[in-house]
Amino acid sequence: MIIIKSPQEIQIMREAGKMVAECHAILAERVKPGVTTGELDQIIEKHIRKLGGVPSFKGHMGFPATICVAINDVICHGFPGPRELRAGEVVTIDIGALYKGYHADSAWSYAVGEVSPEIQQLMKVTKECLYRGIAMARPGNRTGDIGNAIQTYAESFHYGVVREFCGHGVGRSLWEAPEIPHYGRPNRGPSLQAGITIAIEPMITLGAWKAKLDRDGWTARTVDGSICVQYEHTLAVTEDEPIIITTL
């Protein structure tokens, strides 16, 4: 069931989203060669709790940490730990915060030092995919319009669009209806209306789009070892422009 949020509920979600956005601002300064993903996890958990929030991911379905870490060929849901980041890598860090009963969720990809022009372009295109998807989040459009906007742009660069993982509704639950695939046909899927709050999170690869799981049952990677990056915002559909919740 798709849950319509009141203006008051959306305002609470904006407070949760501000926490998440602050965390990403911290990461923009902290992601450097030599730092461990475990250190970043501790920094982000401490900041969320200092602001009165609770990490959304920690303990969710048994996930052990505050942040999800995806380095290079990892698509999503990787565990933070003692692994040091290395120059030339790209890392996506996904963060959720729960505040007054409502979640907000955002992932961002970070270059570790200098990355190759190929990775730079992938990051630029994937970020553009996110905002093209957000632009379609209007009343009267459908989830397929969002997915088609993302897929069409990404595939014009011959990139892969991950199918196995998708965007989703956000609210009192971290994941709720509707699902938001990042591919599809226009005018298909559930209709959007004002008050719906969703996360759009395209995961775009330099190669094949198919995923495989590590033995931990969580970490998803590209089947061909190609680089994957991701950008995600939580947003609210309104009668006018969509409101990006996970921003400062």
UniProtKB/TrEMBL annotation:
InterPro entries named in the record: Creatinase/aminopeptidase-like, Pept_M24, Pept_M24_MAP, Pept_M24A_MAP1
Domain Peptidase M24 intervals: 12-239
One of the record's GO molecular function terms: metal ion binding
Free-text comment on the cofactor: Binds 2 divalent metal cations per subunit. Has a high-affinity and a low affinity metal-binding site. The true nature of the physiological cofactor is under debate. The enzyme is active with cobalt, zinc, manganese or divalent iron ions. Most likely, methionine aminopeptidases function as mononuclear Fe(2+)-metalloproteases under physiological conditions, and the catalytically relevant metal-binding site has been assigned to the histidine-containing high-affinity site.
One of the protein's GO biological processes: proteolysis
Cofactor: Co(2+); Zn(2+); Mn(2+); Fe(2+)
Record: residues binding substrate: H77
Keywords: Aminopeptidase, Hydrolase, Metal-binding, Protease
One of the record's GO cellular component terms: cytosol
Catalytic reactions on record: Release of N-terminal amino acids, preferentially methionine, from peptides and arylamides
SUPFAM superfamilies in the record: Creatinase/aminopeptidase (SSF55920)
Binding site for a divalent metal cation 1: D94, D105, E232
Keyword Protease recorded: yes
UniProt keyword Oxidoreductase, yes or no: no
Assigned EC number: 3.4.11.18
Quaternary organization: Monomer.
Family membership: Belongs to the peptidase M24A family. Methionine aminopeptidase type 1 subfamily.
UniProt cross-references to PANTHER family, sorted A to Z: METHIONINE AMINOPEPTIDASE
Function: Removes the N-terminal methionine from nascent proteins. The N-terminal methionine is often cleaved when the second residue in the primary sequence is small and uncharged (Met-Ala-, Cys, Gly, Pro, Ser, Thr, or Val). Requires deformylation of the N(alpha)-formylated initiator methionine before it can be hydrolyzed.
This protein's name: Methionine aminopeptidase
Species this protein is from: Desulforamulus reducens (strain ATCC BAA-1160 / DSM 100696 / MI-1)
